[in-house]
Design a protein that fits this description.
Layout (H helix, E strand, L loop, with lengths): L2 E5 L2 H10 L1 E2 L7 H4 L6 E8 L7 E11 L5 E2 L9 E7 L5 E2 L24 E4 L1 H12 L12 H4 L1
Parallel strand pairs: 1-3
Antiparallel strand pairs: 1-8, 2-6, 3-4, 4-6, 4-7, 5-6
Length: 153
C-alpha cells in the first residue's frame, strides 16, 4: 500500500469529496495508473479555487482508493477526465505550516512549496500518519480500525 499526496485546489477537492472520486494532473490518466486499490490519498490545496483563488496552503481531505483502474467520466463532449473512486474519511481542513518542520518529504523547509509542484506524489508512512493525525484527531502511532497488532509493530 502506498500513501500519496494529490495537489488540488480546494474547490476541486470538494467536488471530488461530493462525488467520491479523485482526479490528478488536470484529468490525465497516467498519474492515476500509479495508484492502487487500498492506497491512501491526502489532498493538499495551495489555493481555494483553480486557477487563481486566494492562497489556502492546507490539507483539505483524506481518503482511500476503492477501485482497481482509472475510468473516464464524460462531463461534456470535450471534457472527459480520468478518475479513481475514493472513500473519504471525516476530517478537518489542516494548515500545513505547523507541520512543515516534522514532515520528512519536505527536504528543504525554506522552499517547502516546491514539493507540491509535482501534483501526485508518494510519501512515507510516518508523514502520512502525522498528517492523518492532524486531520482526523488520530494520534501518530495509534491503531486504526481493521489494523492488526502485527501491522503496528
Amino acid at each position: 500500500m502506498t500513501n500519496w499526496i494529490n495537489t488540488v485546489s480546494r474547490d476541486h477537492v470538494l467536488l471530488g469529496v461530493r462525488g467520491r472520486f479523485t482526479q490528478a494532473g488536470h484529468g490525465k490518466a497516467e498519474p492515476l495508473r500509479r495508484v492502487a486499490r487500498g492506497d491512501w490519498i491526502i489532498f493538499y490545496s495551495p489555493r481555494l479555487e483553480y486557477p487563481d483563488g486566494a492562497p489556502l496552503q492546507a490539507f483539505t481531505a483524506i481518503g482511500q482508493v476503492v477501485d482497481d483502474e482509472p475510468y473516464q467520466a464524460e462531463l461534456s463532449a470535450d471534457v472527459m477526465p480520468w478518475r479513481r473512486n475514493v472513500d473519504f474519511l471525516a476530517s478537518t481542513e489542516t494548515p500545513i505550516r505547523p507541520l512543515i518542520d516534522d514532515l520528512e518529504f519536505i527536504e528543504n523547509k525554506q522552499r517547502w512549496g516546491y514539493r507540491f509542484r509535482f501534483g501526485l506524489f508518494a510519501i512515507g508512512d510516518s508523514d502520512f500518519a502525522r498528517i492523518r493525525g492532524a486531520m482526523t484527531g488520530t494520534p501518530v502511532g495509534a491503531r486504526t480500525i481493521g489494523q492488526t497488532i502485527e501491522e503496528t509493530l
